[in-house]
C-alpha cells in the first residue's frame, strides 16, 4: 500500500510542478521565459500546419478521390498556409528575436504588453481558422470576400461573420507589429551606452523593425475587407491597390524568420568552427542591404501582371541586388568554416546551423532565375517555386529554429550537457529529416520544371509518381525532427530532476541569475 501512495505522491508532485511551470509560461516574468512562450506557440502552429499538409498530400495521392474532395483540399491548403505565414512565421521570428536580445545581455522591459500581443494574436488567428477559410494564404480579392453558391471565402462563416474573421486577422497582424516595435524600443532602452550588441541581436532587432514596418500593410488590407463586408454599399475593394498593400507585406514576410536566423548563423557557426567570424564588418553592413532591400523588391511577385518594361527591369536588378546580400552571408560564413581548423558537425547544435546554411544555399540558388522575366513567366505558378521556398523552409527555417531552441534549453538549465547517446540520436534525427526533405524539394522543382501547376488537385497522371514519392519521403522525414527536439527536451528534463528547483527555466533566484551573469530582473550582463 505504501508503494501505491509513493507513486501517487510522485504523480501529484509532477502535476503541481507542471502547473507551476505552465503558469510561468502563460504569464512570463523575465526575458527568457517570454522567449519560451513564443517558441512553444511556434511549435503549436508547426504541428497544425504539418497536419494540414499531410492531409492535403493524402488528397493529392489517393486515386479514388471524388470531386467532392476539392473543397476539403483547398480548405486544408489554406489552413496550412495561414498557420504557416500568420502563425508560425511571426511567432518563430519573435521567439528568435527575444532570445537574441537575451543572448546579448539586453532585456524585454514591457513583458506584459508583449505577452498580451501573443495571446490576442494567436487566439484571433485560431478564431479565423475555425471558420474553414478557402482563400489560400494570400487572400486575393474578390474571391476572398465572396459568400455565394459558387464560391465561399469561408466554409462555416457567412455574412457578417466573414467580416469578423478578417477583423480577427487584422488583430493578429497588428499585435505582431506592436510586439516587434516594443522589442526594438526595449532593446534600445537596455543597451549599455557605447557598447555594441552582439551580431545575433543586431540582426534580431534590425528585422524586428522590418516586421513592425511591413505588417501594418497587411492589417490595413484586412481592415479594408472588414469594411467591404460590413458596409458593402459604402466600401468597395480596388483589387490592384489591395494587392500592392498585401505584397508590401507579403514579400518581406518570407524573410521574417530567415534574417534573424542569419544573425544566429553569424553567432553560432564561429563557435563550432572554433574561430572568429571571418568578417563581422561585412555582417553588420549587410544588415542595411538586407533590411532595406527586402522592402523594395516585392513587385517581383506580380510578374504575371501587365507591368511596364522599365518596371520589369527594376524587378530583375533589385532582386539580384538583394540576392547579393544573401550571397555575402554565404561567403562570410563559408570562409569562416573553410579557414577553421575543423568544424564540429558532430555536436547537434553545430550540425543544425551547418544544415541551415547548406539548405539556404541550395534553396537560394533555385531562386536566382526567378526574377528574370523570360524564365519567371514559365515557372511562376508551378511546383518549381514551391520546391524553392520549401527547401529554405525545411532547412534554414525549421532546422535553424531547432538549433536556437536547443540552445534555449541550455540557457534555461546551465546544468544541461547532452549525453553522448543523446548527441548521436539528435544528429541522426537531423540527418533523417534533412535528406528526405531536401529530396522532396528537388522533386517538387523538377515536376514544376516539367509543368506541374501548384494549388491544383487535378493534375496529369504523369506526375503521380512524383506526388507519391513526395508523400513517401515526407513520411520518412517527419520523425527525424521530432526525434531531435524530443531528445533535447528529454535531456533537459532528465538533468532538471538531478538539481534543485533553481534549474527551472522560469525560476530566477539570486543563485541562478548569478550563474547566468545577471541581476534579479532576469536581465543578463554578458553575452
From TrEMBL:
GO terms for molecular function: cytochrome-c oxidase activity; heme binding. The chain crosses the membrane at residues 31-52, 72-102, 114-140, 160-185, 197-220, 240-270, 282-301, 313-337, 349-368, 388-409, 430-452, 472-493. Residues 1-527 form the Cytochrome oxidase subunit I profile domain. SUPFAM superfamilies: Cytochrome c oxidase subunit I-like (SSF81442). The keyword Transmembrane helix applies. PROSITE patterns: COX1, COX1_CUB. This is Proton pump complex quinol oxidase subunit SoxB. The gene is soxB_2.
Amino acid at each position: 500500500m505504501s508503494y501505491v501512495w509513493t507513486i501517487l505522491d510522485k504523480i501529484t508532485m509532477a502535476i503541481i510542478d507542471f502547473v507551476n511551470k505552465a503558469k510561468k509560461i502563460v504569464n512570463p516574468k523575465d526575458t527568457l521565459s517570454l522567449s519560451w512562450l513564443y517558441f512553444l506557440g511556434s511549435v503549436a502552429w508547426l504541428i497544425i500546419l504539418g497536419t494540414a499538409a499531410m492531409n492535403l498530400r493524402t488528397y493529392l495521392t489517393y486515386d479514388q478521390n471524388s470531386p467532392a474532395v476539392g473543397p476539403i483540399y483547398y480548405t486544408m491548403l489554406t489552413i496550412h498556409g495561414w498557420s504557416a505565414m500568420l502563425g508560425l512565421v511571426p511567432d518563430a521570428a519573435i521567439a528568435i528575436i527575444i532570445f537574441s536580445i537575451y543572448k546579448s545581455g539586453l532585456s524585454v522591459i514591457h513583458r506584459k504588453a508583449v505577452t498580451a500581443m501573443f495571446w490576442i494574436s494567436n487566439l484571433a488567428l485560431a478564431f479565423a481558422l475555425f471558420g474553414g477559410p478557402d482563400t489560400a494564404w494570400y487572400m486575393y480579392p474578390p474571391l476572398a470576400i465572396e459568400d455565394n453558391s459558387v464560391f465561399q471565402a469561408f466554409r462555416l462563416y457567412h455574412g457578417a461573420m466573414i467580416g469578423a474573421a478578417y477583423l480577427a486577422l487584422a488583430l493578429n497582424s497588428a499585435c505582431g507589429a506592436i510586439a516587434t516595435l516594443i522589442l526594438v524600443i526595449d532593446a534600445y532602452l537596455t543597451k549599455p551606452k557605447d557598447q555594441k550588441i552582439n551580431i545575433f541581436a543586431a540582426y534580431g532587432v534590425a528585422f524586428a523593425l522590418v516586421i513592425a514596418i511591413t505588417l501594418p500593410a497587411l492589417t490595413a488590407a484586412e481592415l479594408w475587407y472588414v469594411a467591404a463586408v460590413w458596409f458593402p454599399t459604402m466600401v468597395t475593394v480596388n483589387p490592384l491597390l489591395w494587392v500592392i498593400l498585401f505584397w508590401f507585406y507579403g514579400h518581406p514576410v518570407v524573410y521574417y524568420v530567415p534574417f534573424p536566423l542569419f544573425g544566429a548563423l553569424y553567432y553560432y557557426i564561429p563557435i563550432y568552427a572554433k574561430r572568429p567570424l571571418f568578417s563581422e564588418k561585412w555582417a553588420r553592413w549587410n544588415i542595411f542591404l538586407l533590411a532595406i532591400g527586402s522592402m523594395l523588391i516585392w513587385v517581383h511577385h506580380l510578374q504575371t501582371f501587365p507591368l511596364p518594361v522599365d518596371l520589369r527591369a527594376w524587378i530583375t536588378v533589385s532582386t539580384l541586388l538583394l540576392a547579393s546580400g544573401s550571397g555575402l552571408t554565404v561567403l562570410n560564413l563559408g570562409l569562416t568554416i573553410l579557414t577553421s581548423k575543423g568544424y564540429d558537425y558532430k555536436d547537434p547544435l553545430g550540425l543544425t546551423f551547418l544544415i541551415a546554411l547548406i539548405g539556404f544555399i541550395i534553396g537560394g540558388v533555385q531562386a536566382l532565375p526567378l526574377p528574370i522575366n523570360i524564365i519567371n513567366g514559365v515557372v511562376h505558378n508551378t511546383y518549381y517555386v514551391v520546391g524553392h521556398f520549401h527547401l529554405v523552409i525545411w532547412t534554414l527555417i525549421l532546422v535553424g529554429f531547432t538549433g536556437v531552441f536547443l540552445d534555449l534549453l541550455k540557457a534555461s538549465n546551465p546544468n544541461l550537457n547532452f549525453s553522448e547517446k543523446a548527441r548521436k540520436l539528435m544528429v541522426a534525427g537531423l540527418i533523417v529529416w534533412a535528406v528526405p526533405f531536401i529530396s522532396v524539394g528537388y522533386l517538387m522543382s523538377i515536376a514544376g520544371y516539367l509543368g506541374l501547376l501548384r494549388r491544383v488537385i487535378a493534375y496529369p497522371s504523369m506526375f503521380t509518381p512524383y506526388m507519391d514519392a513526395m508523400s513517401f519521403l515526407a513520411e520518412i522525414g517527419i520523425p527525424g525532427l521530432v526525434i531531435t527536439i524530443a531528445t533535447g527536451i528529454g535531456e533537459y528534463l532528465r538533468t532538471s530532476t538531478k538539481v534543485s528547483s533553481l534549474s527551472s527555466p522560469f525560476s530566477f533566484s539570486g543563485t541562478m541569475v548569478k550563474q547566468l551573469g545577471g541581476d534579479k530582473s532576469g536581465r543578463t550582463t554578458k553575452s
